[in-house]
Amino acid sequence: MESEQLYHRGYCRNSYNSIASASSDEELLDGAGVIMDFHTTEDDNLLDGDAASPGSNYAMSNGGGAASSSTHLLDFLEEPIPGVGTYDDFHTIDWVREKCKDRERHRKINSKKKESAWEFTKSLYDAWSGWLVVTLTGLASGALAGLIDIAADWMNDLKEGVCLSAMWFNHEQCCWTSNETTFAERDKCPQWKSWAELILGQAEGPGSYIMNYFMYIYWALSFAFLAVCLVKVFAPYACGSGIPEIKTILSGFIIRGYLGKWTLMIKTITLVLAVASGLSLGKEGPLVHVACCCGNIFSYLFPKYSKNEAKKREVLSAASAAGVSVAFGAPIGGVLFSLEEVSYYFPLKTLWRSFFAALVAAFVLRSINPFGNSRLVLFYVEYHTPWYLFELIPFILLGVFGGLWGAFFIRANIAWCRRRKSTRFGKYPVLEVILVAAITAVVAFPNPYTRQNTSELIKELFTDCGPLESSQLCQYRSQMNGSKAFTDNPNRPAGPGVYAAMWQLCLALIFKIIMTIFTFGLKVPSGLFIPSMAIGAIAGRIVGIAVEQLAYYHHDWFLFKEWCEVGADCITPGLYAMVGAAACLGGVTRMTVSLVVIVFELTGGLEYIVPLMAAVMTSKWVGDAFGREGIYEAHIRLNGYPFLDAKEEFTHTTLAREVMRPRRSDPPLAVLTQDDLTVEELQGVINETSYNGFPVIVSKESQRLVGFALRRDITIAIENARRKQEGIMLNSRVYFTQHAPTLPADSPRPLKLRSILDMSPFTVTDHTPMEIVVDIFRKLGLRQCLVTHNGRLLGIITKKDILRHMAQMANQDPESIMFN
Q1: Could you tell me which of 430, 433, 590, 401 has the C-alpha nearest to residue 513?
Q2: Where are the membrane-spanning stretches (predicted)?
Q3: 69 touches 270 (CB < 8 A)
């Protein structure tokens, strides 16, 4: 179908023109939550199979290679060849080559900067370009986040009514200037009209309830339908949270279009629609994708980043920090999130730039003030009571709940997503979104805790009860007259309102758990942070109220007797909601340090770091007992992305010769000899195979390794030579040596390809333990290494071979999970 055509585009490009146009594509990547079939890509066989494409020649120098002393021919390869060193779609970059290119560029700039004032200015521009690009990224991320927050709030309230005095005001803003509101009903003002009041002319009664119910469902379905249609038609990569794909991209994978202009535009619009539809999703994860789109687009303004994929990923790491900064109002947490969760390569200067990008983004968001509370986030709270040592027991129990919920959610959601991909149901994404949105709206409306915006729900659950709170959760009985009252005494018997709220929260908890499983992975922008936090906050608030009432009715128990006297201020249910939210989010994502920092920045609860740490670590331990993968790693594996997780340990005792290819049943390794192939023979090897690279050897007899040449670079070089150099024919000799071989006088002009040869490919011996090979691939970002025995070439190990081997060692079918 159209999505499959989208994913297969760009494969098997052998002509120079198609390669050049692909490499200049401004949109770096694309592939979130969409069903991709990588089985047909050239990436499946780099040589003997895999790795990512073009570029293993990290020691490459396009201008290198001295002219032969035995010939006066102009070597056209002394000039840089357009297209050499670039990458095809769905291929992995060569980190070593990219870093080598950047060092060479830096040396060239430093050597010229003293020649003239212009060269010195260019060197200053180059030095400051990193700070400029992260500044622009932070500004754009903060502005877009503020726009999304304001628009989502307005459209969410549109489901319930409209402001007659100013259509662009949401419910809260509409009643700010009203003089006719009361303290108990501060959200009711004559300027705000529900749909029942507008259509039927009445605010109460069964007819009014049914009309509001109908309009709520109508708007929810309209928003959801518009969101999924925009994604399907204009930017299929705008769906999902984007974090699994961002992690894969930062590890070096190319998915063109994933961080492009169309994806940014459609993701921004559809994120507002998806959140306003009431689906069980959040905007925090997709905001990381939005920020990375900004970083990718701005990186094309600076050649230092546009021409180097490794340097570009430094910008994307900083952009992901800015995304979390504006999503949670947590600049420090954003930097730690980028370091702990998404980044593959994180040098010290990237840490500084990430910090600066997060700072700029947070400053812009604070200037916009989207929530009208002079805070970066909606649910900023302050607690006025300390926590006590005994409370670590319920906090740890909440951590256990978070770990169990995380393990259950990951298994259930992955099972549903796998079923979606393997059945006909996955072919109708619009119908699925409409169905889930309809069920969500129908079930959510009767319960006030599921009807309201999820962020508003979390704010209410986090807030401590006081004299200014009118929530049903704060309707305690006064000890003086037994009626419902709001006093400054937090420990008092719960009234009917609290018990009714407890039942509604229990139903909301079940509803959120079920719907989040089926919502995450839909073809609309969908984050997981807010739904997970909502589930934890509901569970935590229930536990907090239970402990509070236990302390009130049994204050003489030894647990409470020492520190919780009658009428004393001892239990804060809102704190339990905050701890539960952190525990559930940690159970799903397996984040630790960054999560604790995000939560205390989010809530201002710096005093409660120890309870947060205890709950988050407990949730991680419990979750790891059922499986070490977080939800993002699980989706990476489900989609078959070539991602080597640095957190995963390789504990097997296999050797390189057991993993390398060719194996005994395979055909011999496809190789090139250094000086006895013709152009016709070289093109025959390229046309008859689908490998992405070829080892170059001295001769078939010696099998002594000379270097490694990439299929893409060879194709580009031949096409370029035919256009620029006369005399290149099919029977022209191709040589990879420094000097041309001795040829008869009537022979056509030879073709020198030494400058595209990687003369220092990584090699290991056939007896190298695989745990060392895996470590080399992770730390150096390799795509392939060659296997030798006493200096003779035996085979090749690619990144995909390692992933297949690791899957096989884990008793998984290696072919069923790779690039499906």
Answers
A1: 401
A2: 128-148, 216-238, 258-279, 286-303, 315-339, 388-410, 430-449, 501-522, 534-555, 575-600
A3: no
- 384-390 long-range contacts, CB within 8 A, separation 24+: 384/464, 384/569, 385/490, 385/569, 385/570, 385/572, 386/607, 387/572, 387/575, 387/607, 387/608, 387/610, 387/611, 388/563, 388/564, 388/570, 390/559, 390/560, 390/563
Structure-token pair, residue 464: 């401590």
- How far apart are the C-alpha atoms of 103 and 86, rounded to whole Å? 17
CA distances from 87 to 56, 96, 244, 313, 790 (A): 11, 14, 21, 15, 33
Q: Please write down the long-range contacts of 483-490, taking CB distance under 8 Å and 24 or more positions apart.
A: 489/567, 489/569, 490/385, 490/464, 490/465, 490/466, 490/548, 490/569, 490/571, 490/572
- The answer to whether the CB of 88 falls within 8 A of the CB of 24 is no
pLDDT interval class at 167 (50, 70, 90): confident
Cis peptide before 662 (omega within 30 of 0): yes
pLDDT tens track for 263-289: 999 999 999 999 999 999 999 899 999
CA distance 259 to 331: 22
302 half-sphere exposure, CB direction, 13 A CA radius: 26
Q: Which DSSP category does 183 fall into?
A: S
Place of tokens 């708007």: 219
Band of the pLDDT at 73, cuts 50, 70, 90?
A: very low
Structure token digits, residue 181 = 């509101």
User: Nearest 5°: CA angle at 570, between 566 and 571?
Assistant: 120
- Number of residues in the chain: 820
More confident residue, 52 or 542: 542
Any idea what DSSP says for residue 710? Answer: E
Residue pointed to by tokens 């549109």: 158
DSSP calls for 802-814: HHHHHHHHTTS-H
CB neighbours (10 Å) of residue 485? 16
Signed CA dihedral, 135, 136, 139, 145: sign only: negative
Sign of CA dihedral 102, 107, 110, 114: negative
**pLDDT over 50 (residue 454):** yes
Instruction: Give the H/E segment covering residue 678.
Output: strand 677-678
> Is-contact 703 764, C-beta < 8 A?
no
Selection from 413, 399, 412 nearest residue 620 by Cα? 399
Tell me if 296 sits within 8 A of 315, measured CB to CB. Answer: yes
pTM, two decimals, is 0.84
Model pLDDT for residues 696-706, shown as the tens digit of each residue? 999 888 889 99
Q: In this structure, what DSSP letter does residue 159 have? A: T
**Which residues lie closer than 8 Å to 382 by C-beta, 6 or more apart?**
464, 604, 605
Q: CA-based Rg of the chain, rounded to a whole angstrom?
A: 30
Alpha-carbon distance values, 366 to 139, 328, 356, 370, 439 (Å): 12, 12, 15, 8, 36
693-697/672-673 β-pairing? parallel
